Amino acid sequence: MNRSRRCLCGGAFTPAIGRFERFGDRRVGVSPDRPCARRLGEAVRRVADLWGWRSSETRLESGAVESEQRVWAVEPVVETSEAGARRLGSVYWREVRRATRGLVRVAASGGGVELRVGGRGPALLRFGAAEVSVEAHAVLCTFPIVGGLLSRTPSGTITFAQRRLDDRVLLVSAIAGFHPTLAGRPGAPAWTGELYKRVQARIHVAISRNYFRRLIAEARQ
After folding, report:
1. What pLDDT score was predicted for residue 195?
2. Domain definitions of the chain by residue range
3. Which positions ≥6 away from 62 have C-beta within 8 Å?
4. Which CATH fold would you assign to the domain 51-213?
5. Strand 112-117 versus strand 104-109 pairing type
6. Pick the residue with more confidence: 136 or 63?
């Protein structure tokens, strides 16, 4: 159930915990021209030091990339429900658009998600419908990678997860089985994968950092 609550500055804040329609609609999150949006922006910037931040990447012999970013949080950032799991995904897609200053547009397509430059032309990446999992102490939202210019083959997943432990909460963003077009093919010289390592991989890590900051900041509101 999508419910509103009062933010610190008196405005109404509606958590984006529904499906992934209406990307860019001001009702997803808060409108940037409201005082509460500015207050939220300040809260995000204050989450400067991510507790236990860790980022790792492995290249498999098959050429697939395994990448994981994780941080600790003091308390859960989403509720333990299907809606909470979907929110983990929706906040990430909003952060993709925000981090690229709107250059990369996120749109719902056939139950999944597509990333396009300016919302036009061929998709950079295409994802299938979200697969959510709700357990007693964990929620996960997984999108299968089904194509796009930046994917050499329709394979792999991106997963967002929250796991509650006894004294802390683990937040994770993980890519598995992904074959990037910009990465070198198996057996090719190392330099052929430099574009992926220096550009695409770094952008993903930067977005993940801001994604975790926003999850934590919005939960505090």
Report:
1. 66
2. 51-213
3. 179, 186
4. Alpha-D-Glucose-1,6-Bisphosphate; Chain A, domain 4 (3.30.530)
5. antiparallel
6. 136
